[in-house]
Amino acid sequence: MDLPAAFHPNSSMENVARVDSFYSGRILWFKVEGFLFAVGRDEFAALSDVFAGMYLLPSNEAVDGRDESHPIMLEGYLKADFRSLLKVMYPTSRTLILGEELRLDLCKDEWIGVLKLSTIWNMSTIRQYAISRLSKIEPSIPNIEKIQLARAHRVGRWLEEGVKGLLELGSVTLSDLEVLGWKTAAVICHIRESSNSKGRPDTESSTGPYRFRLDSIKCGYCTATCSLAEKHPECGNCHVPFNNARMLRCQTIARGSVEADSTWILTNSIQCIDCSANPFGESSFNCHGTCGFTRMNSAHKVRVSIVLPNGDPHALVEDYFGEEIKEYKLHDV
Questions:
Q1: Which domain covers residue 69, as residue numbers?
Q2: In a designed cystine with 254, which of 80, 91, 172, 264 is the match (CB 3.0 to 4.6 A)?
Q3: How far is residue 223 from each of residues 89, 148, 198, 218, 304, measured CA to CA in Å?
Q4: CA distances, 331 to each of 120, 124, 145, 325 (Å)
Q5: Are residues 33 and 136 in the same domain?
């Protein structure tokens, strides 16, 4: 086989092309759970202040990780987590190319491992990417696990989402919550109980917005107790999922009611808390009571049970978890 001149042992060095390399040749050695890992040093130094600082020492200083006999000992770490981090830091075509797409495909536990180590070692770019991937993973992370991960890895939005998600569930037992600790369980139970404190605002002095649960929307022309909004699984505008405990709001209320604990509003005044648009759009409501309205539109009145200000779950989440959420969010500033 004829070799190109640049590769021929007798060829002149003047003919050898200079090539930029993605790999510097400087190796960093780690030992995790008895396993040795040899990786390119530059990527660790570029992505983490922790590792960058190790190589600011004078060249005559002995630094762990310089060779196989002097690895960086990662005591208390899992090799599975470390290997997951390396998959993100040093991807290969085998891990990146899936069909015609270019992506990095790790399972949920692997992404959690990446999040854990990138948080410990201040790898902010990888940390944010891991949070993004875990936030979109299917099936979505359960609320209780999301709270646990939020606290373990200081992710503010997950703590907020997890707590609010638990408040919107139809039922939550103490046994479900005990893994969060008695204090958190007690606070969540308190907020859920307070959120069920319904009443009528003083129409002469109070101002909106007024909050109420989706399942409290009832016919304003009769005393039927069935909800009119049971068949609306999501907001018609922003498509956020709805359940019976979903909180909605309105800015104005009408005088009078047909029950002591209910308030009249117009259906076209109802707003989704997430997007502020009317979540029902042009949908109509069917009353199965005695009033005879089979197709109620936006001009009709409905009854709702207003959640009093001290029972607003969003305000209570802010009261009880706001500082912790804010502290975690500052971690990513």
A1: 27-140
A2: 264
A3: 63, 44, 17, 8, 12
A4: 12, 10, 20, 10
A5: yes
- Is the pLDDT score of 16 beyond 60? no
Q: What is the CA radius of gyration of the chain?
A: 29
Give CA–CA dist 117/244, Å, rounded. 39
Distance from C-alpha of 249 to C-alpha of 184, rounded to nearest angstrom: 27
Q: Would you call 274 helix, strand, or coil by DSSP?
A: coil
Is 165 a member of any domain? no
Of the residues 115, 140, 165, which one is the last residue of a structural domain?
A: 140
Report CA dihedral (299, 277, 318, 163) to the nearest 10 degrees. Answer: 100
pLDDT: which is higher, 57 or 67? 67
Separation of alpha carbons 42 and 123, rounded Å: 14
The verdict on residue 61 lying in a domain is: yes
Tens of pLDDT along 21-49? 445 568 889 999 999 999 988 889 889 98
If asked whether residues 213 and 115 sit together in one domain, one would say: no
Q: Strand pairing partners for 195?
A: none
Q: Are residues 133 and 202 in the same domain?
A: no
What phi, psi does 154 have (nearest 5°)?
A: 60, 60
Q: Which residues pair with 210 in a beta bridge?
A: 250
Per residue in 174-207, pLDDT (tens digit) is: 888 999 999 899 888 888 877 665 555 554 445 5
Distance between CA atoms of residues 149 and 141, nearest Å: 10
